[in-house]
Specification:
The structure is a homotetramer of 309-residue chains. Chain A is α+β, with helices and mostly antiparallel strands and 309 residues long. Chain A has two domains: 4-61 and 199-302, Beta-lactamase (3-Layer(aba) Sandwich); 64-195, DD-peptidase/beta-lactamase superfamily (Beta-lactamase, 3-Layer(aba) Sandwich). The first copy, chain A, has 13 helices and ten strands. In chain A, a hairpin with a 4-residue loop joins strand 7 (257-259) and strand 8. Chain A binds chain B through residues 46, 87-93, 100, 109-110, 212-214, 227, 230-232, 234-236, 238-240, 244-248, 250-252, 254, 256, 270-272, 305-309, and chain B through 46, 87-93, 100, 109-110, 212-214, 227, 230-232, 234-236, 238-240, 244-248, 250-251, 254, 256, 270-272, 305-309.
Chain lengths: 309, 309, 309, 309
C-alpha cells in the first residue's frame, strides 16, 4: 500500500494530463461557465490528517452531493418513517427520469435521484419557512466541516429556479400522488438552494468524516448519526450514489460515493477516510469524468475497497 | 463482537421460531415441493474453520446462486470483453423483466438478472457441446467446494426446461438482437442445468471462499481469479445480487450476496468469511425471506458490514 | 333504419333505467359535485333539424371536448406546422401519462391527450395575453354554436388551477424539452379555462356541425375549416378521442368522438349529424359510461357507422 | 369525383416516378431479395368491376395482411370470447414490441400486432394439427378471392422459422402468462405459414370484398361474416392496421387498411371497394412507403374517406 501523499500527488498529476475531461453541465446555465480545467482533491483521514492537491480550496457548486446531508438531517428528524415516502433501490434510470414515478405511484426509487431528494427536502420543510429550512441545512453542513465560510451561490440557485423545469415536473407529479406535503415551488425553493451550496474539496471531505467514522464526527467526537445509519447511508451511496452509473462506480472504484452535476464527488472509505474530488466535466451518466477516474486510481493504489479482504 | 458459534446458534434458533416464512417458488413446479420449514446456514471462515446450523447438510437447488460461478468462469474465459455483451448496472426491474432489453437493444443490465446470466452461459458454451459446458461448470463448482458430491437435480432442470417460457422469451429476444451466439434452446439447456445444481449450505459456503479471500481459494491456496476480479464480483453481488431487492439487502445486511429462487443465498464478508444460508420461502422480490433475515441478524451481531469502519 | 326522434327517445329511456352509471370524476373537486343521474343528448342534423332528450339544456363542464375546438383554431392559426410539436398517433397510455413524453423527447403523441392539448393551447397563446386567448377560444365556440350564453365556469377552472398537479408536471416536463414556448402557468391558465367551458348538449351538438359537414357551418354556410382538415380532425377523434379507450369506442360505436371527464362526448356522423351526449359517470378509461353506451345504441339503431357500407 | 380508371392510371404513373421508395424489409432474409421497383394496385368495386395497374398480377408475400383473414376466421370460430385474450386498442408501440405485454400480463393490445395475431393463430389451431390449420386458412383465403392459385411461399415461411426470434420471444412470453394454449413452436409454425401466403394485388383486393360489402361476398353473395363484425374489423384496421403509423394512415388516407412487411396493404372503402396495393419498400413504421402514398393519392382523387360527408 502506498503513502497517501505520494498517491494523491501522482493522481493529481495524471489528471492534469488528461485530454478528455468530459462536458461541463449546461442544463443549469450558471454551471456551464465553470472552467473544465479545474481539478481538486482532498482526503480527510479518520486520524485527523488532511491532504489536498490541485484546486482543493476553490469553492464549487456541490449540487446533488448535498443530498447526503439532507438525507442525514431528514433521518434525524423523522427516522425510518422516511422510507414510507421514498425507496432504497437503484433506479435503473437517469437522475431526472419520471417514468419510474408513474409506474410506482409517485414513490421515488431512492433519496439520491432528484425526485427522492425533493421528498427529503419536503420533510425538512415541515414546520419551517423555506428560508429557515435552507438556513438549517446550511448550518448543519458548516458544522460538519467546522467552517462557516460555506455559502449559497445565489446565482446558481436562481439559475435553477428559472430553468429547472424537469424538477418542477417531478415535484408536481409527486404532489399529484400526494407524496409532497408542501407546494412544489416551496419544496423546490429549498432544494435548489441546498444544491447551490458552494464548498471546497477540503470542506466537503471534512464534512463527510462522520460517514467514514461510524456516524461520529472524527474531529470533535460528536455523534452526528447512529453507527447503523451511517452504514446505511454508505450503502445507499454505493448502490444509488451515481445515478445510472452507480453499478459502474461500485465495480470500478469499490467505495461509497455521491456525485453532483457540478463535478464534485464525496466518497467514503469506511474506517479510513472521507474524500472529496472535483472536476467539472461530466461523463454520459452525469458524473464527474475525472473525479471518477481519480477515485478509481487512488482507491487502487491505496487498496481502498469495501470489497477487498 | 460476538463469537460466531454463539451468534449462529442464536440466529438459527430465532429462525426456527419464525411464523411468516414467505412463499415457496411455484413457477418451477419441482421447487414448489420443498418443505418451507427447512432452514440451514453455514459459515466458512477465511481461517479455515467452518460452522453450521440447521439443515446445513441438506442439498437444495441453488438456482441463480450459480450465476456467481458461471460469471467467474466466463471472466476467466474471455475476460473483460464480456462487458460488451452485458452491463454492470442494477436493473430497477424484476429478475425476469424483458422491458429493459427492448429499451437497451438486447444488452442485459447485469450478469445476475436472468437475461444477463443467459448471455454468460452462452459465453461458456463457445466451442463446447452443451453436455460438456454443463460438465465444466459442475467440475468448477466441485473444485471450489472441494466436494465431488455436488450434483445436478435433473428433475428440476427438466421442470424448468418444460415450463421456463419466460427464459425462452428472454433468450429468443436477445438472439433477435444478435446478443446470443447459440440457439436459444442450447444456451438455455446449459442454463437450466447449472441452475439445477444441488448443493448444501456447507458446500456453498466453501465454494464461495475465494470471494472472501481476494480470489484465492482459502483452503488450497490456489488462485481462482485475480484479486481485482474478486472485488468486482463482490461489487456486482452487492449492487445486483438480489434483483429488485438489491438496494434493500445492501441497506439492511450490508455485505455482498447472491440469492436464488430455491431459497439459497451466498454472502461474502471480504477478508473474513463466506456464508451460505437456505430457507425455501421467498419474499416479494423472489429472495429467501428467512435467509435475508438470518443474514441481517448475523451481520449485525458479528458487526459484519462492508460499510462499517 | 329508424326515425331519429323515435331512436333518441328510446335510447334516453333506456339510459334512464341504467343502474351502473360509472363514477363521477373526483380528481377535479368541483366536478365531483355533479349529480350522476343526469343524462342529456342532442343531435344536430346536417339538414338543420335538432333533436334532444333528457337534460340536453343543462350546462356541464365540457373539459377535454374543448380540445377539438382549440385544435381547430390552432390549425387555422399555424397550419400543419403544428405537427412538428405534437404527433398524430394513439398513445396506448392513459390521458395524463408522462411516460411517453420521456421516451419521445417531449413531443406528445396526439393533440387529444392532455400534454398534446397543452401544446395546442400554447400555440393559441402566441401574441396574446392569457385573458385574450381565453376570450378568443370562447368567442369561437360561441360562434360555432351560434349562442353567446356559453360561459366559463370559473369555480371549475379555479379548482383545476389549485389541484391540477399532473398537468403542471406535463407542462413543465415539455418545457424542459423546449416544447412549450410560454411559462407553464400561463399555458395552463388558458388550458384550465377552456376545459372549464360550460355548455349544454344542444350547444355542443350545434358547435360540432362543421365536422359533420366537411368544414362548413351547416347553419350559416360559413367555412370554418377546409374539408380536408375537417376529415382529418374526424380521423384524430376516431383514433385518439377516447384516450386509452379509443379503439374500443371505434369498435363499438364506429364514429369519431371526443370525450371529456365532465361526462360529455361530442360525436360526428360525417355527412349526417353532430351529436352531443352527457352523463357524468365515467368508465375505467375516463370516458362517460352512459354517454358511450347511448352513442353505441343510437349508432346501431340508426345504422350510423363510418365503417358500414 | 374522378373516374376510377383514370385515377388509378394517374396514381400508378406517379408511383413509377418515385425516387424514394423506402427500404425493403431485411429482417426476414427471403423478403430482402424482392425488387424495390415493383408496384402494383388493384381495386375490386362492390359492383363487380375490377381495375388494376402495374405489377398487380405478380404474387408477393402478404405477411401481416393475413391477420385480417385469420381474425375473421377466429371470430367465426369462437366469437367474441376472443376478446378475453386480446385487446382492441392501438398499441402505441412498434409491431414487435414486448414491453406492453409485460405491463399488461401477456394480453396483447390488438389482433394486428404480432403478439395478438399469434394468439389468434393459437385459437385457429385448437383441435387441429398445424398442417390442417394452415390448410384451413389457405382454403378460406382461396375461397374469398375465388382463386385456388394462392399458395404458400415455403422459402419465406422457412426463412421466418429460422430467424423469427422476436416472434419466438413474444410467443414464449405470452405462454408464460398462460395466454397461449399450444406450444410456441406449433402456434408459430402456423403463424409463419399464413404470413407466407403469396398473393397478387388482384387476388388480395378480391379477397377483401366482404369487408367493403357488409360481410357479404360481393361476388357470390355468400355471407362471410355478419355485418356488425365486418364493421368492427374495419374499425380495428383503421385504428390498429398500420402499427405505430395507424394514426398517420387514418389521418392521411382516411380509410381502414392493413399492411404487411412484404409491402402489401389491403384497404377498404366501405360500401364502395376493396383495394390492394403492393410496393416492397417500407417506411420507418414498417408500412409500404409507396403503397401508403398511392392510397393517399387515390383516396383524395376519388374522394374516398370514411370521414368525409
Amino acid at each position: 500500500m502506498a503513502e497517501i501523499e505520494t498517491a494523491l500527488a501522482q493522481v493529481a498529476a495524471e489528471m492534469a494530463e488528461a485530454r478528455d475531461r468530459g462536458s461541463v453541465a449546461t442544463y443549469i446555465p450558471q454551471l456551464g461557465k465553470v472552467d473544465p480545467q479545474r481539478f481538486g482533491i482532498a482526503v480527510a483521514m479518520n486520524d485527523g490528517r488532511v491532504f489536498a492537491e490541485g484546486d482543493a480550496d476553490e469553492p464549487f457548486s456541490i449540487q446533488s452531493v448535498s443530498k447526503v446531508f439532507t438525507l442525514t438531517l431528514a433521518l434525524g428528524k423523522i427516522g425510518d418513517s422516511l422510507w414510507q415516502r421514498v425507496g432504497r433501490e437503484p433506479s435503473g434510470n437517469p437522475f431526472n427520469s419520471i417514468v419510474q414515478l408513474e409506474h410506482e405511484h409517485g414513490i421515488p426509487r431512492n433519496p439520491f435521484v432528484n425526485a427522492g431528494a425533493i421528498v427529503v427536502t419536503d420533510v425538512l420543510l415541515a414546520g419551517h419557512q423555506p428560508r429557515e429550512a435552507i438556513g438549517e441545512i446550511l448550518r448543519f453542513v458548516q458544522f460538519l466541516c467546522d467552517d462557516d465560510s460555506v455559502y449559497i451561490d445565489r446565482s446558481v440557485a436562481a439559475s435553477e429556479q428559472a430553468t429547472g423545469f424537469r424538477n418542477y415536473a417531478l415535484a408536481n407529479y409527486m404532489r399529484s400522488f400526494g407524496n409532497l406535503t408542501h407546494a412544489p415551488e416551496m419544496a423546490l425553493g429549498v432544494y435548489f438552494h441546498h444544491c447551490a451550496f458552494a464548498m471546497t474539496c477540503r470542506q466537503l471531505a471534512l464534512a463527510g468524516r462522520y460517514l467514514a467514522n461510524g456516524g461520529r464526527h472524527s474531529g470533535t467526537g460528536h455523534t452526528v448519526i447512529s453507527t447503523e445509519r451511517a452504514r446505511r447511508i454508505n450503502a445507499l451511496m454505493l448502490t444509488c450514489g451515481h445515478y445510472d452509473g452507480s453499478g459502474e462506480f461500485a465495480f470500478r472504484v469499490g467505495i461509497p460515493g455521491k456525485s453532483g452535476v457540478g463535478g464534485g464527488i464525496l466518497a467514503v472509505v469506511p474506517g479510513v477516510a472521507s474524500i472529496a474530488v472535483w472536476s467539472p466535466g461530466l461523463n454520459a451518466n452525469g458524473n464527474s469524468k475525472l473525479g471518477s477516474l481519480a477515485l478509481e486510481r487512488l482507491a487502487k493504489v491505496m487498496n481502498w475497497s469495501v470489497f477487498a479482504p
